[in-house]
């Protein structure tokens, strides 16, 4: 009896021991992996690169910037570059200058920086050149005289949006435009608005009746749209320049039961926007190819580091996604 | 020891070693795992502290360099310059501990940037010192401002690196800690379970060790009390206790054998002692017999002389029959009183029997008929003395005594081959076969007492054949056996109611 009980006990214990040992091994292994893949990892085990490339972008998960980073990272391998990403708060653009200055003072090989201000682009380009650092500004509209710029022109984006609105609403179009946070200067001179106005030019009577600029933050677009609709009862179309603004506009239209009465032309491509397009809340979205912008920016960096001459600004086109699919 | 080689795992030593190894094998991995994990944690903290320490040193050296540089540029004091040189050198050395290679890792790239900033700072600081020495105010002012700005950026970057490192560490350590907590919990349970199992095994082994030992001790106590036959429970285990039990049983058997041997020796000694007592007794009896013999040697002379005087008196008085009586009686007594162990001729035996018969006829008249027939060739054969007379006496006293009509007794002597055959028969009551066998058995038993005869001691009952049935016959048988050294024999044939015949067969070559 005793012997049998002892054997059963030993058997159960053996099972528990094997199980606990495996669990131990797994836990310790995962713990060690967590540490050795991070803090304890030998620096020499990280992949080496030939060039140190700093990317400075706003700290946002806007699909434009996600695509931009993805494009840069994708091309970094072929450019033999290690990418260091600095993000700055949209509410504190001076952080961008600190990152830029740090990178330049540290004499990294290159900087790809989201730039909207013409003045700052010129100044930074000069500073980078002075320190032997390749500077590639990326964004929407190339500043005058800027070289090595890679982006998609706001004018064309606005023009495309105007054409779509005009084609759907014709002369009755009463448009509210939500301009991007990153823009600066007089709203009337914003290339996006100019493009939009040009786009509806073919439809006499159609007008932009409200122009506002969204503030940094995910909900700012929603707030701006709500204000535009409240202040402009006759508004029947909304033109948004970013994914956040588009999602915010759609949300407001749904909330205020204006679906079908207010046409939304959005920007960029997110799963939410695609869902809104599917449901007919958003008529179309003009998608800037930020991924390609990133890839072109890395290509420009490599070209300059290899000693080849500077090139003209690179314009990346748009894709329009509507209920019937995408079109260039 | 042999069993230990054949089945090593069954021995207690192997079991104890196995048990200990099992416990250690359980606890050691648990401790090892925990130790390994703790070691990794300590190493991680060490790495974290090391990196942070480098950053701290850089920050400290940067501050001191900046202060001494500002002091030198403001006062041109050699002390500040010395401090500047010392701290800037220290700053350069510390910055060389930072990563300077381009690796696809954010913290390493940040370190590289910091190294670049420190280099840049040192360049500007050095340039400003050089310009100060050259009294180039504009240049040293400009480079100093640059260095100040660079130092500020470096500090910002240090803060950023520390923050990033802390953030990464918190993530890594929190995951690590949660897993280590699970490991510690698991191992604690494991250790408790191992302890319980070990205790169970220890209790079991203790029981298995002590139980047979207790039985062995009880058996040893029993043997100590003299119970050499105490049975030790059979142990089929091949461990040390089994071997000890087997050795104990072997020892028990040896003791038992030795004890039996001692007992046997004691019995032999006892028997020897008894025999010695018997011998002493016999010696006493021998002396008594010798005394008696001396007495009897005196009396026969007196008796014979008296009988001779009586014989002469009877002759003188012409009393012939009385004279014959005294002559036959004297002759018979003379023959009978001579030593019984002597050898005589058959002729003498016949003569003795004739005298005895003459005396019997005188007593019983014609009631009994006696017939004697002896061949001539047998008369010269040697025979033990007094063989025939007791047989005749037995025939008359036992065979014919109760027969009112009387009876017949015959004596025959002849040669048969190499033997002389002396036969006494009667037609009396005979003897039962059981009595014949008893007499034979008694004679056989007494054969072992031959030393008595050799020692000159008369056999028991000798001369008293009429006292008890068969004594005379036994005496005859024994003396024939002794005299012929076993070559002679006495045969008895009887039919109850019809008579008995006793035949003495002795070698014709004579007795010893």
- Net shape of chain A: flat
What CATH calls the topology of the largest domain in chain B is: Four Helix Bundle (Hemerythrin (Met), subunit A)
- Supply the CATH architecture of the largest domain in chain A: 3-Layer(aba) Sandwich
Radius of gyration of chain B: 68 Å
User: Please, how many domains of chain B?
Assistant: 2
H and E string of chain B: HHHHHHHEHEEHEEHHHEE
Per CATH, what is the topology of the largest domain in chain A?
Rossmann fold
Helix content of chain B: over 70%
- Strand sequence of the main sheet of chain A, in spatial order? 7-6-8-9-10-12-13
Strand order of the largest sheet of chain B: 2-4-5-7-6
Q: Helix segment count of chain B?
A: 12
CATH homologous superfamily assignment of the largest domain in chain A: Response regulator
Write down the CATH class of the largest domain in chain A.
Alpha Beta
List keywords for this structure.
heterodimer, A: 328 residues, alpha/beta, Rossmann fold, 7-stranded mixed β-sheet, 6-stranded parallel β-sheet, B: 512 residues, alpha+beta, Four Helix Bundle (Hemerythrin (Met), subunit A), Heat Shock Protein 90, 2 domains, 5-stranded mixed β-sheet, disordered N terminus
Summarize the structure.
The complex is a heterodimer of chains A (328) and B (512). Chain A is α/β, with parallel strands linked by helices and 328 residues long. Chain A has helices at 2-36, 63-76, 94-105, 118-130, 154-169, 191-199, 220-231, 243-255, 271-279, 290-305; strands spanning 51-58, 81-88, 110-114, 134-139, 150-151, 174-179, 207-213, 237-240, 263-267, 284-288, 314-315, 318-322, 325-327.
Give structural notes.
The complex is a heterodimer of chains A (328) and B (512). By secondary structure, chain A is α/β, with parallel strands linked by helices. Chain A is built from ten helices and 13 strands. Chain A has three domains: 19-46, no CATH class; 49-152 and 290-317, Rossmann fold, CATH 3.40.50; 154-288, 3-Layer(aba) Sandwich (Rossmann fold). In chain A, the strands form two sheets. In chain A, strands 7-6-8-9-10-12-13 form a seven-stranded mixed beta sheet, with helices on both faces. In chain A, α8 links the parallel β8 (237-240) and β9 (263-267). In chain A, α2 (63-76) runs parallel beside α10 and α5 (154-169) packs parallel to α6 (191-199). Chain B is α+β, with helices and mostly antiparallel strands. Chain B has twelve helices and seven strands. Chain B has a five-stranded mixed beta sheet with strand order 2-4-5-7-6, covered by helices on one side. A two-stranded antiparallel ribbon of chain B has the order 1-3. In chain B, a hairpin with a 2-residue loop joins β4 and β5 (419-426). The longest helix of chain B is centred in the middle third of the chain and has 88 residues, at 137-224. Chain B is rod-shaped and about 210 Å long. Chains A and B meet through α1, β1, β2 and α3 of A and α2, α4 and α5 of B.
């Amino acid at each position: 009896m005793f012997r049998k009980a002892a054997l059963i006990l030993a058997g159960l214990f053996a099972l528990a021991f094997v199980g606990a040992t495996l669990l131990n091994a797994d836990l310790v292994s995962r713990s060690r992996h967590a540490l050795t893949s991070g803090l304890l990892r030998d620096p020499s085990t990280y992949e080496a690169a030939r060039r140190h490339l700093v990317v400075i972008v706003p700290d946002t998960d806007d699909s434009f910037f996600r695509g931009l980073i993805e494009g840069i990272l994708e091309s970094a391998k072929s450019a033999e570059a290690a990418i260091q990403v600095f993000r700055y708060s949209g509410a504190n653009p001076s952080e961008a200058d600190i990152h830029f200055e740090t990178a330049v003072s540290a004499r990294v090989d290159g900087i790809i920086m989201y730039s909207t201000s013409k003045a700052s682009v010129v100044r930074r380009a000069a500073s980078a050149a002075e320190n032997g650092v390749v500077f590639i500004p990326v964004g929407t509209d190339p500043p005058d005289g800027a070289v090595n710029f890679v982006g998609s022109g706001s004018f064309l984006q606005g023009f495309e949006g105007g054409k779509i609105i005009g084609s759907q609403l014709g002369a009755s179009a009463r448009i509210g435009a939500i301009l991007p946070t990153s823009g600066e200067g007089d709203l009337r001179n914003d290339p996006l608005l100019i493009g939009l106005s040009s786009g509806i030019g073919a439809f006499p009577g159609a007008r932009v009746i409200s122009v506002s600029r969204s503030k940094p933050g995910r909900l700012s677009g929603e707030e701006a749209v709500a204000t535009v609709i409240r202040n402009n009862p006759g508004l029947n179309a909304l033109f948004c320049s970013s994914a956040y603004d588009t999602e915010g506009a759609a949300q407001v239209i749904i909330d205020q039961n204006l679906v079908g009465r207010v046409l939304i032309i959005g920007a960029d491509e997110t799963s939410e926007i695609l869902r809104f397009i599917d449901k007919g809340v958003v008529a179309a979205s003009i998608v800037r190819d930020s991924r390609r912008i990133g890839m072109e920016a890395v290509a420009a960096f490599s070209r300059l580091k290899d000693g080849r001459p500077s090139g003209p600004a690179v314009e990346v086109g748009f894709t329009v996604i509507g209920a019937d699919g995408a079109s260039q | 020891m042999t069993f230990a080689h054949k089945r090593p795992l069954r021995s207690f030593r192997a079991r104890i070693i196995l048990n200990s190894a099992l416990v250690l094998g359980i606890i050691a991995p648990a401790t090892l795992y925990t130790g390994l994990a703790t070691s990794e944690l300590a190493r991680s903290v060490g790495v974290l502290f090391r990196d942070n320490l480098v950053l701290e040193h850089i920050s400290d050296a940067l501050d001191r360099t900046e202060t001494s540089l500002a002091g030198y540029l403001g006062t041109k004091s050699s002390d500040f310059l010395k401090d500047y040189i010392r701290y800037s050198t220290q700053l350069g050395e510390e910055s060389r501990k930072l990563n300077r290679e381009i690796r696809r890792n954010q913290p390493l790239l940040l370190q590289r940037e910091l190294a670049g900033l420190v280099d840049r700072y040192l360049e500007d600081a050095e340039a400003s010192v050089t310009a100060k020495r050259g009294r180039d105010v504009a240049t040293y002012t400009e480079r100093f401002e640059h260095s100040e700005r660079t130092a500020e950026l470096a500090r910002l970057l240090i803060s950023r690196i520390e923050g990033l490192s802390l953030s990464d560490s918190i993530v890594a350590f929190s995951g690590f800690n949660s897993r280590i907590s699970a490991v510690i919990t698991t191992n604690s349970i494991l250790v408790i379970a191992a302890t319980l199992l070990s205790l169970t095994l220890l209790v079991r082994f203790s029981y298995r060790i002590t139980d047979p030992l207790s039985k062995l001790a009880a058996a040893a106590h029993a043997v100590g009390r003299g119970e050499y036959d105490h049975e030790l429970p059979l142990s089929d285990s091949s461990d040390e206790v089994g071997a000890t039990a087997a050795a104990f049983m072997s020892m028990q058997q040896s003791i038992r054998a030795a004890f039996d041997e001692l007992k046997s020796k004691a019995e032999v000694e006892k028997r020897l002692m008894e025999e010695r007592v018997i011998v002493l007794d016999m010696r006493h009896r021998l002396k008594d017999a010798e005394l008696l013999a001396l007495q009897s040697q005196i009396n026969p002379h007196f008796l014979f002389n008296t009988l001779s005087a009586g014989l002469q008196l009877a002759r003188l008085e012409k009393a012939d029959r009385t004279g014959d009586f005294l002559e036959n009686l004297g002759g018979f007594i003379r023959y009978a009183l001579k030593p019984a162990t002597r050898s005589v001729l058959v002729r003498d035996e016949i003569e003795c029997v004739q005298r005895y018969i003459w005396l019997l006829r005188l007593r019983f008249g014609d009631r009994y008929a006696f017939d004697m027939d002896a061949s001539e060739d047998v008369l010269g054969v040697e025979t033990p003395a007094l063989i025939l007379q007791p047989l005749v006496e037995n025939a008359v006293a036992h065979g014919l005594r109760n027969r009112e009509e009387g009876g017949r007794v015959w004596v025959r002597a002849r040669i048969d081959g190499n033997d002389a055959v002396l036969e006494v028969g009667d037609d009396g009551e005979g003897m039962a076969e059981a009595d014949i066998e008893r007499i034979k058995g008694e004679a056989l038993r007494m054969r072992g007492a031959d030393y008595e005869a050799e020692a000159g001691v008369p056999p028991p009952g000798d001369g008293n054949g009429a006292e008890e049935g068969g004594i005379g016959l036994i005496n005859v048988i024994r003396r024939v056996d002794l005299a012929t050294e076993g070559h002679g024999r006495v045969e008895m044939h009887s039919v109850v109611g019809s008579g008995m015949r006793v035949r003495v067969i002795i070698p014709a070559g004579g007795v010893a």
